[in-house]
Design a protein that fits this description.
single chain; 259 residues
């Protein structure tokens, strides 16, 4: 479905960005990283370790299953250009590594999602879909409910971690708001019609939310670099080359270093 394809694109762009309830395919991808799903597509031995992050290890079969879901949203034309396919796989490897770093850090600081919070989130998501559409989507993707629920827990953990460590510490000043207004006026980014019916306070709140998202994104990269220093990512480049070779040719740069 088109809606699913859009959700996957959002998921792997900026992991700190707040997520709406369109999470089913996103959660399936996380679920597959966790070790569930279909058979591997690579000829590399399925239990071969692709990367380790702290106490976590990701096997080739887990990567392939996660990539299959990711590729369903991004794969148009990839089969026609092996070079693009190889580059896409390399980028996805590093995106998965970041997810594992975040989960490792969350575990170390004792960040947990309670059963009540998880169940509430499940019902909230279910409420967005009419009749039995929710169950049909799970069935179409060959994922049972308990597996999907586990993946939702992973997503909530990462979101809460971002909120706790970054967003909650963002400070928005009056100067920030004034500068934002000036930017909108200069670039004409928001036509007057978009603000009709909104009071000054509501508009300010909308701007504050936007500024908070922007500052969270700006803080994410240096924060993640610090976490990677604490939780080194060890990607087996020989295995990467084997995985990429399945596409038709090895990577030309000898493999990228772990992020």
């Amino acid at each position: 479905m088109t809606r699913f394809r859009m959700v996957v694109r959002i998921s792997f762009s900026m992991m700190g960005a707040p997520m709406r309830h369109d999470l089913i395919i996103v959660l399936i991808a996380l679920l597959l990283i966790g070790g569930y799903g279909c058979q591997p597509e690579s000829s590399v031995e399925r239990n071969t370790v692709l990367m380790t992050v702290g106490q976590r290890a990701l096997r080739v079969d887990e990567f392939e299953r996660a990539y299959r879901v990711f590729r369903s949203a991004h794969g148009a034309g990839l089969e026609e250009d092996p070079a693009v396919e190889r580059a896409t796989r390399l980028r996805f490897i590093h995106q998965v590594a970041e997810q594992l770093v975040l989960l490792e850090y969350a575990r170390d600081i004792g960040l947990e999602i309670s059963a009540d919070a998880l169940n509430t989130a499940v019902e909230d998501i279910r409420g967005d879909y009419p009749d039995d559409l929710f169950e049909q989507m799970l069935l179409e993707n060959a994922v049972n409910f308990e597996d999907w629920k586990h993946a939702l827990w992973v997503r909530l953990t990462i979101d809460r971690l971002i909120q706790q460590e970054l967003t909650a510490n963002v400070q928005i000043t009056e100067k920030d708001i004034e500068a934002y207004y000036q930017h909108l006026d200069a670039e004409q980014l928001v036509p007057p019609s978009a603000l009709e019916g909104e009071g000054a306070d509501q508009i300010d709140q909308m701007i504050i939310q936007q500024l908070r998202r922007q500052k969270t994104e700006q803080a994410y990269t240096p924060w993640m670099e610090g976490l990677k220093a604490k939780y080194p990512v060890d990607i087996d480049q020989a295995v990467v080359q084997q995985v990429i070779a399945d596409i038709g040719a090895p990577a030309e740069d000898g493999g990228e270093r772990a992020p």
